Protein 1
Amino acid sequence: MEPLQIQIVNLIGDVYAVEAEDGQKIFNSITKAFTDKQKVNISFQNIEMLTTAFLNTAVGQLYKDYTEEFIKENLSVSDISDSGIVSLKRVVDTAKLYFKDPEAMQHSINEILED
Amino acid sequence: MSKLFTIDNSFESYQSLISLYNENSNKVFSEISVELCGFFSANMSAALGAVLDLLSDGFNTINFDYIRGDVESILSKNDFLTFYGRKRAVDIYGTTIKFQKLKPTDGKFFKSYVIEELLNTHVADLPRMSAGVKEKIIEAIYEIFVNAQIHSETTHIYTCGQFFPNKNKIEFTIVDTGIGFKEKVNRRFNWNLSSEEAINWAVQDRKTTKIGIPGGIGLAVLSEFIAKNKGKFQIISDDGFYQFEANGVILKRFVGRFPGTIVNLQFKTNDPYNYSLKSEININDIF
């Protein structure tokens, strides 16, 4: 079965995918599709501006409820710019670490106090 | 009477604005007279506007008793003084980026403003910019605006910028009157960090106060861009001062506190670095 296509520009009604609130709309659609056992392709076609805040909410928080293997198997992206790929990869790597050790943030105080 | 002398992006300039706030913050139903006696970097209208708005909350009346001629001219062109009953002036040289007071939910207005002020109006001013610099500048401005939306719990966000063609730079300032870094970080983790420590923690890669949503990338990405661009960024929050440049970080403490957060961004427009290089990341190997 072909993956469900989520056109970001259509879902958020904007070529600027920048606000966390808009990222939440994408996240909600992806999780709904996953619940319905559908694979998803997110299309960044015509998106002119991206922030990490948007990507964290849209994609990063998926790693809270789904394993890396599940996401690899069921999620793909298309029509994304080169700078968008770099940002998305960074968001994904950060999300994996964030959910791997939820206590790490609490303990990270030592990093600045030891400076 | 509060006199402000040189107001640019120096530590002392921010201290002057903090002192202006702290000296007048207990006043109610009073007249607060302000004199702008020296150079005033137009982008700092965002910080002054935020301070004066908070002082107005005490039913105080703000009067500009004196403004140096050239300063009055530029602050009339960037719309700042129209918020205080003065007439708007036309910006023939197109170096101003207008003063705006927005609600955190005004993301769509902010977009129009950024496109109008940074992409359309000043196209002719920025011919020397290498590929991708303008996009990186706008992306950086957005990361800061969205941070203020998400984290600050502010009622308004104040923004203003200024082109300095002779110095090949743009300064852009985003100000909120929310809870500040110290309160946000300490409340989230039950820590007891100073303002400088809280800011210094938050700017590190992958550090976030959000619960259940990863983050903490925006300020790190900004630092990396600023380092390449040879620009500068400063965060003033509560009594903390943080400054990042390619050659290092400065942390300092103010006397008194700023009631919110100022982020001042300084970008070089003659940046030769090519930010449009092709990514080596395989699109099928992201997740």
Note: Residues 133-151 of chain B form the longest helix (19 residues).
Protein 2
Amino acid sequence: MPLATAVWTETDRMPSAPVQVAERARSLDRFLRGIERRALRIAELSTHHREDALELVQDAMLAFARSYADKPEDEWPPLFHRVLDSRILDFHRRSQVRRRWRVWFGRRADENEEDPLEQVADPGDPGPMLRMADGQTRAALEAALRALPLRQRQTFLLRIWEGLDVAQTAAAMGCSEGSVKTHLSRALAALRPRLEDLR
Amino acid sequence: MNERRHAAEPGDPTPSDARWAELACRVLDESADDLDAATLSRLHRARLAAIETSRTRRAAVWAWPALFAAAASLALAVLIWPAAQAPLDSTPDSVLAAGDLELLATDADLALYEDLEFYAWLDTQQSADG
């Protein structure tokens, strides 16, 4: 064997533990930096409040870093959304419990609570064309997305906006691939009349 | 729309839906890009905290083998030390045991040994009287 091939060079050596830790930290930073804004918007569309959304995203980042940072990087997107999706579901469960208690004790809803009437389609709505003319395309889109049931909205955002495939979306939402297809089909059917005239 | 968009699968938007779906993604992208400085700062801090959590955890994982090796070495030392000391301590014990056996074997002298303190006291009394 030639001596040159038998000698270990500096580049051949396995990276030391601190170097591996630092490289992993840099990868994690890149991943979280790339996903954090969209994650916040996804959470905000579900919670309707930025502060709540920030807390959910912060919590999801910590939990993801604690539990899944050692996984291969190509598995990170669905895993991160799995963590975030479970936090969003927990948030909705807690909100429902709070609402039930308020109804039970006959209390009036807080002033900052979402008005249920806002979830109902406005018969006097001028339609997407006029809203767009008013420069409210974003508001129209957000209103349409918020009007969707939670699972349909999550499916639309993960599948269409985040670009996860069916299997990854199913993994992120903890449901079957068939459920993903059903949710997406229903979401598109609900969004179509409200958004198809967007320009 | 995200660059990681996959090929069309069953249930995906139809070509007629694709136009408004792409526009919706573009509007959502813009909304994500337009976040205010305070929100971006909060996200930045959250990201740093998550990275620190991961770094600490990974450092701890790397430290476990070293800690285990140190603990194993210590345990080995604790187990080996008495065994190494045993031959050195056995010599005086065996000498003492032999002396005890000789003492026990001579019944006549046993009473003398049991009353040794009395004889010593008697000796001091006699010396004082003499």
Note: The helical segments of chain B are 15-33, 37-105, 107-114, 116-129.
